[in-house]
Each structure stands twice: as structure tokens, then as C-alpha cells.
Amino acid sequence: MAERSGTFDGVHRRNLAKVLGLVHLDGPRSRAALTTSTGLNRSTVAALVGELVEAGLVEERAPDPTNRVGRPSPVVAAHPGVMAIAVNPEVDAVTIAAVGLDGRIPVSERVEVDHLVSPEEVAQLVATTLEHWRADLLRSARIVGIGLAVPGLVRAADGLVRAAPHLEWREVPLREIVESATGLPVAVGNDASLGALAEHLFGAGRGVDDLVYLNGGASGIGGGLVIGGIVVSGAGGYAGEFGQNRPGIAAAGDRRAEGGVLEDEVARARLLQVVGLAGADEPTLKAALEASDSPEVANELARQRRILSTALANAINVLNPAVVVLGGFLATIAERDHDALVDAVVAQAMSPAAEGVQLRVAALGEGRLAIGAAELAFAPLLDDPESGIAPA
């Protein structure tokens, strides 16, 4: 039977979710602050916190020192032992991380691969890694589920990977495959959309209601949209595929892939090539580019920046965001000459649309995709704290 919104159970459930959501998103907060934020009375907040403590979802800490008159209010924080496992399969590596409900990432492992991994290989790698962690680093953790950030088109309704071209995956029931291997609830989403979610909630887009996010990874360029404070996924969940758009290239000499899409021209592989690396994680590639004084490196960065600026101007014209956030190797391109990129974008965008727009690099670094994937896994618990969590 559908829950009636006015029932006691429904109201109680929403109030529990409200309190848990506040300490998850905003960090430790005093009971007094929670009372103010929720609009509930003190005794109700105390009772809700007590239930969440008993469920092992939050913990209470000693009050912060204060000069206020009266008894200091205890501080409520998300329990650090409540975690989700985040997974990002890529063409060159599979990254697995444990993300706490309190936002920490206590352990992360990048497993480099020399071949395109199959969905079954990813599932087995996650199961094996999780088994090792549970015996050691996460032996006292309570794991709510697994979130996968996949570089491809993921159907929102059921997490079916319709196409992950660079991994050569087609119509893959990834959720079922990983659930079967691990015995945990699994959620699947597009990697860039989850990066947008993470940056919107915790990073460079925090507090911004209208933003565009572009992520540059080993599998190309993806994106995410936040419009009016809502993450927009599209009818089927496929919105934000900026990398598949045909780029506008003003100078014929800038073109490298005849008839190619944006991610063929603005590409991590091309940056790796000019610095002489076969493969690298984000910090290693960034360091190599920054350390190089090669004209070839400078020219390639400038070429990619010119093409990227046109793509960003088009996005600004269509969506009129307040902020554009760049992650992955796109952030490295932007940081190399931020002012030049901004000037090139503004020069090509409609003046009213570009007015006041800010270009920012992702604030969460390599953790952005893990945090976004974990949000996917945490969502059922945050929506209904009474549902409990999977046993450790």
C-alpha cells in the first residue's frame, strides 16, 4: 500500500531523513542547530537523534566549548563506520574506494589493467577487494551497498549499461552481476553525472542551483547538469554526453580526427602521448604536464583549450549556468591558463548568457567520482533511515 503523506509513520520517516541528511551533507551539527534547521522542537530532535544513534547511523559527541549561558548542546555526526563502496571501471584501471557517510574516504585502490575489463571481471575484483578490506581495514564497517560510476550510457530505471563504448560494453545488466558477486545492494550511474552530483553537494558547485559539469577521463568526456537545484538526467538517464557533440574548430590546423567528436579532439590520450606516458592517474599526468617545458606539450594544451572553449561557450548559450565546473584532465587544461580559457569562452558565448558565469575546477579531486557513486548507494538509506543497513 502506498504511504499516505499525512500519516504519523510518514512524517516520522521524513523527519528522521531530514536529520540524517543534514549531518551527512553539512557535517557535525549541534542538536540546537538541528532544531533550528528542521523547525522541529527540541524534544522531537532529541528523540530522532536517539533513534539514529540506536540504529548506528549517527553518533553524539561532547559539546563544543562555548561561552553561552546554559547547557551546551551535544554535537551530532554521521557515524564514521557507515560506508558505501564506490567503483569506477575505466579503460586503464578500476578504482575502488570506501566512502563514509561522514564524507571520508578511508581506503581507495586503483587497480591498473592492461586490457578492457569485462563486467564479470569488475564484479569479481570488487568482491575480492571487499573481502580483503572486511578482514582488515573495514573489519568494523557497516556497508550499505555499492555504487558504480560507469563511463557510458546508463538507463536510470534499472541501472542497465546501454553502452560504454570505450569498455566495449553493450546492454550489460551490471547491477545484477555485481549484486550476485558481492551479496550487496548495487546502484549504477554515469560517471560524469555522479561527478556533477558530488561537486554540487560537496565541492565547487555547492550552493549553486544552475551549473554545468564536464569530466575528462580515460574514456573521454562526459558531463552532468544541475538546473534549478535539481540534477537533470534526461528521459532515460542519458543527459550530459558533451563528449559526443561535434566540436566547432575554427582553425583547420587544430583538427586531428576528421569528422570526430569533442572527445576525439580534446583527449587525455593525446596529453599522455606528448609527455611520453603510456598511462597515468590524474595527479601523475598533471605533474608531468606542469613539469614539461616542451613546445609540443604547450602547443597541444593550447590546441585542446581552444576547442574546449567553443564547447563550453555552446553549453553556456544553451543552458545559461551560473558556474561551469571542470574535472579530470579538463581541470588540468583549465589550470594551465585559466584566464585564457575564460577569455576564449566569453568571446564565443552570447554576452548576456556569459555575464557573471564562473569557470571553476573540481574541488573534490580524484575523490569526486567515488563520492558521487557513494551518494547513489547511500540514497535509499538517506531517504528512509528506518530501512536500516545491510549487515557488515
TrEMBL record:
InterPro entries: ATPase_NBD, ROK, WH-like_DNA-bd_sf, WH_DNA-bd_sf. Belongs to the ROK (NagC/XylR) family. Pfam families: ROK (PF00480). It comes from the Bacteria. The lineage of its organism: Bacteria, Bacillati, Actinomycetota, Actinomycetes, Micrococcales. This is ROK family transcriptional regulator.
